[in-house]
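User: what does the whole thing look like in 3D?
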Amino acid sequence: MCSEKKESSNFGLLDIVKQCDNFPYPEETVEIQKFNTTPLILNDTKIGLLLPSVIQALRSYNEKHESPSPFVIKEDLVTFSPHVNTFEKRTKAIEQLLNSWRTEKTFSALKGWRDELYPVYGDPSGPSNMAFVIERAATPLFGVLTFGVHLTGFVKTKGHYRIWVAKRSKTKPTWPGYLDNTVAGGIPYNLSITESIIKEAMEEANLPREIAKDSVPAGAITYFTVTERGLQPEAQYIYDLELPIDVVPKPFDDEVECFYLWDISKVIDHIKAGEFKPNCALDFLIRHSIITPDKEPAYLDILYRLHRRHEFPGPSFQS
Amino acid sequence: MCSEKKESSNFGLLDIVKQCDNFPYPEETVEIQKFNTTPLILNDTKIGLLLPSVIQALRSYNEKHESPSPFVIKEDLVTFSPHVNTFEKRTKAIEQLLNSWRTEKTFSALKGWRDELYPVYGDPSGPSNMAFVIERAATPLFGVLTFGVHLTGFVKTKGHYRIWVAKRSKTKPTWPGYLDNTVAGGIPYNLSITESIIKEAMEEANLPREIAKDSVPAGAITYFTVTERGLQPEAQYIYDLELPIDVVPKPFDDEVECFYLWDISKVIDHIKAGEFKPNCALDFLIRHSIITPDKEPAYLDILYRLHRRHEFPGPSFQS
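Assistant: Here's the predicted 3D structure for the full assembly of 638 residues, as structure tokens:
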């Protein structure tokens, strides 16, 4: 059993959501200009967003690189050079760039190297519309949309909810020691969404496949976070899993320190205390009528910010 | 029992959502410029959006009006004149304007006069942050955010859903004869959200209060529709109501022609045939795992467009 921190701060729920959706909206023109971003473009489609520090490092790399250089850097956009024109070539060009930046310690974001490849979409001739794949830790440098899964495991007794809350391991590169959804993880380029949730439930919470497979999809949350690592537009597919009281999630890999089974009121107290990773639980609490529109003044604003529209393309597949 | 139309078209679900969220987004600069709208401003806050035809009619009204005229019309904004500075005075100024337009048949939108007052928010010194109230039929002329409630009544047997679908009366001023949520209606300025859903359930579906009060809130959908009546940014609070099989909604007022209890597959067929009012049912189908992300290619795009962020202010109240 791990120790519980006593909550102290008291944020509004909208404040919490704003911590995860903190990149300005297109209509916030003054705020957005301060970021001075440059879009990463592929065939007229915006697939990422680069901060000035990344543009500068990309320029240096291009200059040192033997000709022809792999990237085209213009005043108002960055794109791949004409010879870097396939999924494989783009993936290779990005890999070489990142190896160089990693060796030269150009960006602290790359210290959290994961050895996990994430898809970046936008090329209809690539597999499932993928333009390239990229090391997970590097995604904030390119401001590309990343995809993940969230699972809320809960116990319902006589209409009364308790939620299985994970405490993130203190060694995690992002949000160490924070409270989290029961299971959360990225979607690697080679797994379906449902397979991703089952795999993560097994790895993070030691839930067997025959239990995890009963997870039901219930929507997605989308938001755009700015952190010290860079720009992180994210989409998290949301799953619910009602668990029998005798099924107890247990840490399995090193991602989670421990699990708590908490009443809703305790979950909300800890959310308001700022102890949860800020992208957690609110969508569940709204869908399950725990946060209600007659009681929560920021109901609509919370929903907007949990469903931010990203312009970036996603996967294509046959329905 | 009323007759069923046989479905013929076959739209994708995203096409349907785009019919209800068809006003361009801020980043779609070319499309948005074509509308050439002017914001209605109150104390630096945008509370509405006016088309050129409305600006022109407002200019004529101002010129004919005895001095001092109630509206200030500038190149880049419209606002109330300094002497029209309270909730009551704005409400009166709008009422007089609409009476004039109605008499002169300036806008066909006003033919559907409802005698229902809708709130427009944005004045912290007004009741619940209201700037004024306005006749419902006139809201599209001012592009003000309107609020409504949606209720999906359903029967669940062994994990299998059936939905109570309303067929709108052929005499309704908007979407006559279309299929609809079980219960839907606007939120008048003097009712809470929960009271609105109970009232509408009683009036439209003859559901008694002791049943309707078990409706549970599960979120909201928000979108921005352009119609021949004007500009309609909307927010609909979403409620679910599981009904026993022996509770049968029945038309009570003249809003609904009849109700059907349909299997999900039949509901989806009729949605794809374009027979539903396009703001219906998709949110329910996503939350209840009927539309799933591994099967629906436009899953995220559908969610974005059902949760469009409106800049316009909403009500204020103590939580």
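In plain terms: Chain A touches chain B at residues 25-27, 192-194, 216-220, 222, 235, 237, 286-289, 292-297, 299-301, 303-311, 314-319 (CB under 8 Å). The CA atoms of residues 99 and 110 of chain A lie 10 Å apart.
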